[in-house]
Amino acid sequence: MELRCPKVILRPLTMDDYASWHEVRSRCRAWLLPWEPRSSAAGYPEENRSTYQTRCEIRDREWQAGSGFAFGIFTLAEQHFVGEASLSSIQRGPFQSGFIGYWIDKLHAGNGYAPEATATLLAFAFEKLALHRVEVAIVPRNRPSRRVAEKLGLRNEGVSVGYLEIDGRWEDHVRYAITVEEWIARRGWYATEWLGGR
Q1: Assessment of whether the complete model's pTM goes beyond 0.85
Q2: Which residue among 21, 42, 172, 173 is least crowded, i.e. fewest CB within 10 A of its CB?
């Protein structure tokens, strides 16, 4: 599956993307790790070909189960890898909800790629998956990430204390959310501002 935006394309990462992914993750390690959960008490996994392949396999299983949809973010013109965006922890039943997460290569921050990718995932969540609610949780001091949620007009629902373990510490998170009713009411604005008029 491929989701096209005005500036970027979202598509699942494959083994063919490993070299580009590894270059960006290695170069941006200090920029990214302060905002990411560790995979275990021992710390972060090595970002080598083997762990990348395992990661791709896990993401494939999530796609098949409908519990998560992870995408690489690629520039539209050059097909250059610049980050990732995901819709994860999808719950059905009475919840019909999911969480969006994203990160961008430090060299490409500020180009509008993260809000555009996030708006595209919101359209996917509400219009293709029929979810009712989507949330983005962000460490309060991560101003660039919070700015993405604010640009998209997501509702600030306040701070959850000790919400998630990030970089070995239990961190508070500002929780931003949007429901399908809010999406429908503002669909024209999202189309004009972020989705290329779609």
Answers
A1: yes
A2: 42
